[in-house]
User: Fold this.
Amino acid sequence: MSELSDSTTAFMNTFNEKDYDGMIGLLSPDAVYVDPNGIEHRGTAAIGTSLKSIFDGTLGNVSYDVTSTILDDRNCRALVTWTMMMTAADGTRSTVDGLDILRFENGRLMSKNAFCKAEGLAIRPVA
Assistant:
């Protein structure tokens, strides 16, 4: 296994393990997360705030099924496809399919660009 493979697996596992502190610990201090709506979150505090609801139960019980991983060791990038399953407090279940483009440097996540299949498009104005 490569360092990239290990880093990718460790990062993705934090979500199913509900290990918020572990996820934060894998981020580079100047990491960038672009969420599925195209909103950019810079730094561990901003990223932590944007992802907290996945870990703290706000979205219900959340788990990820990683369906494929493609590693580019030379460029320290991973493409991870997944299905996120959410079970609300009332038992209602829903799923969403998505893709993360992850870039690591020295075992720390530098960027996470997330995409999801959805009914609507995330359209951003151009300045």
User: Anything to note?
Assistant: The mean pLDDT is 93. Helices lie at 3-16, 20-25, 43-55.
